């Protein structure tokens, strides 16, 4: 089988997939959950419950507000104790609904059986309504509401639906574990998306270091027309939306354009599984798979099914993490994740992993002068020149940022990783992107 | 042999002559005609090209002056050249000189190292705009100064320095031209250009934190806790979203001392700002 990869840049990283074969464990119900009302890009949902209300699993807590937004459901049964502000992983305060939990009790209509059903509803509009109601957002990290991504504007057409089963970040295994345990559900989810997009061309892209998942899913796709598997090389950032499109279709998304402009829709496997559950099981998005991993002296690695709103420290306790020795706790992978300010920050719909790093490894190496080796430009998958962006910003010169396409940076971190002078290039590129967007 | 030399001189000389004539004609025909008044005004302007007037640079501002009606001209102002330069410009155009009070930038944060000690370690790029994107800031205040000094690099008049004791940027009112570069760059919008009273005073709330009192105080002793004492002393002061704001209409000489003395946290700053050689007109 020919293995595809994107045309330029990228890195071969040490994978550290410690929990790759760990089965998904249920993290259970913490005594309190803190459910943020904004777990997506766009405007926060509007709260429709109040203090003292009794809720069940799947009760709508906050309703999508505005064009880009998503519904938020309760992930537990219990009583609403407070509507308050707690620190998110970035340290900024976000509004949450705090629920004291009781024994699990589901809203009527939610099918909790694990039996596979593949009797897809005929009406696309009905399916989109179900996805909307379930509050599904992109679970790969960006959190873009799925119904919007799958509603294609009249002047555009789709040829490819790409299901992103690539987990190129080191340590993270949540998507891989899901593909091993729920392969058929994912394929049916892809069929459902095929249906609403009106195409017969879903491609599940999996990277080569998941042979078991490739085998399982390839077997199943034989029984479902219109869903195929493509194997990609494991190279970082293979899972980036633009890189993946380039691998699978050979097309390049032009600067400032969206995947839909080249006829592609990309969805993460987690999202596709959530679509399956929403449509076939009437289950809103209130839990997800989270990898806990990192320094093996500090934590046991594993994959957990976690209720949205679970505080990070509850999950760390489950994984026997030595919390007092944590140097850095990352929400997301080590390349693009956010170093968390608070150990109690709640898990949301887009949190793919908690990575624990020891004190020693969490420090940055000392920076020295640029030696003009050009390695950053070589590895940049977007074809940028990070050294030029950085040196201009050092001189406070923002004029050339547009010509340097600073706004195209995807923040993958390849440049900073490779830099032998240890210049914090991603930080500069972040600044460059911010300044370039300001100029627009 | 000498023939070749002569021929060469003739040919190159001929080409040069043709080129010279063409260039001369083009220069005459396509000459950029600048209004002599515009040129004169441009020469008077300080050539700081800071954009403080709201135009792309001094040349652009001169152009706007020449094309302005008397009413429009009253709205134009070069904060760097101040009344002196504006007086000269108005003479050229034959208008009345626009009148402005002295102004200077103030920092609406008093989260000094003492009042707001560091709680969180940040080892990313020491740059306010980057840090603001990724985290709340080392002091734990979501609205306060990050102390990495982006504003220093934006001020081309050297009016800003980081005070070694407080860790905060400090404004030299004498050097500040009110160009607004710091206002634009600070990711937390901490700067405000405020008028200086006739007796060289300013009074303002040096806090931008919109959290509830207890929470704000938790991070910084100098934070505004929205107790509304100031509002009870002066009816013009509004306290909204847990934060007080003193409008520029409040007279520093009349209320300043009283407000500063009665603020329980020290969020209100009342101080004299002397601009040497620059009088209010
Ligand atoms: S972080 Fe941005 S500039 Fe650096 S390699 Fe990735 S895309 Fe290129
Ligand atoms: S005032 Fe603003 S720009 Fe200046 S150091 Fe503070 S946060 Fe940074
Ligand atoms: S302190 Fe601010 S307003 Fe004053 S001159 Fe410097 S940048 Fe301009």
Topology overview:
The complex is a heterodimer of chains A (440) and B (281).
Chain A: E1 24-26, E2 32-36, E3 46-47, E4 54-55, E5 60-63, E6 72-73, E7 78-87, E8 93-101, H1 124-133, H2 146-150, E9 160-165, H3 174-181, H4 183-197, E10 202-207, H5 211-221, E11 227-232, H6 241-249, E12 264-268, H7 269-281, E13 287-294, E14 302-307, H8 312-318, E15 326-331, E16 338-339, E17 353-358, H9 375-379, H10 386-394, H11 414-418, H12 425-439
Parallel strand pairs in A: 1-14, 9-10, 9-12, 10-11, 13-17
Antiparallel strand pairs in A: 2-8, 3-5, 4-7, 5-6, 7-8, 13-14, 15-16, 15-17
Helix pairs in contact in A: 4-7, 10-12
Chain B: H1 2-29, H2 36-44, H3 58-66, H4 70-73, H5 82-93, E1 103-107, H6 128-134, H7 150-154, E2 160-162, E3 169-171, H8 181-185, E4 191-195, E5 201-205, H9 213-219, H10 229-233, E6 238-240, E7 243-245, H11 252-262, E8 268-272
Antiparallel strand pairs in B: 1-4, 2-3, 5-8, 6-7
The structure holds iron/sulfur cluster (SF4) (3 copies).
Residues 379-382, 384, 386, 409-415, 425-426, 429 of chain A line the site of one iron/sulfur cluster (SF4).
């Amino acid at each position: 089988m020919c293995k595809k990869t994107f045309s330029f840049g990228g890195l071969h990283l040490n994978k550290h997939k410690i929990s790759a074969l760990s089965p998904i464990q249920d993290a259970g119900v913490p005594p309190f959950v803190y459910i943020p009302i904004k777990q997506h890009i766009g405007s926060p949902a509007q709260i429709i419950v109040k203090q003292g209300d009794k809720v069940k699993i799947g009760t709508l807590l906050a309703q999508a507000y505005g064009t880009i937004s998503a519904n938020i459901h309760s992930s537990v049964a219990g009583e609403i104790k407070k509507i308050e502000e707690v620190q998110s992983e970035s340290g900024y305060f976000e509004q949450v609904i705090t629920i004291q939990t009781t024994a699990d009790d589901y809203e009527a209509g939610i099918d909790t059986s694990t039996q596979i059903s593949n009797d897809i509803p005929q009406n696309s509009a009905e399916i989109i309504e179900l996805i909307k109601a379930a509050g599904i957002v992109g679970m790969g990290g960006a959190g873009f509401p799925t119904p919007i991504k799958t509603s294609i504007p009249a002047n555009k057409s789709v040829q490819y639906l790409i299901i992103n089963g690539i987990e190129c970040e080191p340590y993270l295994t949540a998507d891989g574990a899901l593909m091993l345990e729920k392969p058929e559900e994912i394929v049916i989810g892809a069929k459902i998306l095929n249906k609403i997009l009106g195409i017969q061309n879903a491609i599940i892209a999996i990277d080569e270091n998941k042979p078991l998942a490739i085998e399982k899913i390839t077997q199943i796709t034989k029984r479902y027309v219109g869903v195929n598997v493509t194997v990609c090389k494991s190279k970082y950032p293979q899972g980036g939306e633009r890189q993946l499109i380039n691998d699978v279709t050979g097309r390049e998304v032009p600067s400032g354009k969206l995947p839909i402009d080249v006829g592609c829709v990309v969805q993460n496997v987690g999202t596709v599984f959530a679509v399956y559950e929403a449509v076939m099981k009437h289950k809103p998005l209130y839990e997800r798979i989270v990898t806990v991993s990192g320094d093996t002296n500090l934590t046991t690695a594993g994959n957990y099914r976690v209720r949205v709103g679970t505080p990070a420290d509850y999950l760390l306790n489950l994984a026997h993490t030595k919390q007092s020795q944590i140097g850095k706790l990352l929400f997301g992978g080590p390349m693009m994740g956010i170093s968390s300010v608070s150990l109690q920050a709640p898990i949301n719909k887009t949190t793919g992993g908690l990575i624990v790093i020891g004190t020693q490894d969490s420090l940055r190496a000392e920076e020295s002068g640029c030696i003009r080796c050009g390695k950053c430009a070589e590895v940049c998958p977007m074809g940028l020149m990070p050294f030029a962006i950085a040196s201009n910003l050092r001189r406070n010169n923002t004029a050339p940022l547009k010509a340097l396409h600073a706004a195209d940076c995807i923040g993958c971190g390849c440049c900073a990783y490779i830099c032998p002078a240890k210049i914090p290039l991603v930080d500069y590129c972040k600044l460059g992107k911010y300044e370039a967007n300001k100029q627009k | 042999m000498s023939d070749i030399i002569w021929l060469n001189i003739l040919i190159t000389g001929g080409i040069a002559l043709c080129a010279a004539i063409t260039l001369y004609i083009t220069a005459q025909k396509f000459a950029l005609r600048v209004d002599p008044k515009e040129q004169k005004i441009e020469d008077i302007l300080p050539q700081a090209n800071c954009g403080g007037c709201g135009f792309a640079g001094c040349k652009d501002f001169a152009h706007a002056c020449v094309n302005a009606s008397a009413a429009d001209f009253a709205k134009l102002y070069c904060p760097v050249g101040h009344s002196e330069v504006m007086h000269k410009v108005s003479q050229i155009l034959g208008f009345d000189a626009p009148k402005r009070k002295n102004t200077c930038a103030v920092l609406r944060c008093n989260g000094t190292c003492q009042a707001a000690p560091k709680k969180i370690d940040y080892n990313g790029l020491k740059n306010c705009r980057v840090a603001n994107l990724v985290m709340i800031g080392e002091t734990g205040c979501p609205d306060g100064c990050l102390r990495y000094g982006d504003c220093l690099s934006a001020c081309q008049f050297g009016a800003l320095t980081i005070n070694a004791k407080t860790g905060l940027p400090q404004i030299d009112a004498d050097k500040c031209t009110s160009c607004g570069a710091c206002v634009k760059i600070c990711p937390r919008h901490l700067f405000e250009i405020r008028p200086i009273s006739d007796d060289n005073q300013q009074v303002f709330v040096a806090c931008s934190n919109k959290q509830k009192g207890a929470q704000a105080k938790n991070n910084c002793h100098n934070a505004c806790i929205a107790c509304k004492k100031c509002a009870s002393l002066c009816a013009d002061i509004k306290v909204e979203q847990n934060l007080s704001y003193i409008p520029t209409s409040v007279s520093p000489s009349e209320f300043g001392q009283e407000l500063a003395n009665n603020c329980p946290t020290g969020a209100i700053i009342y101080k004299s700002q002397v601009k040497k050689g620059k009088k209010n007109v």
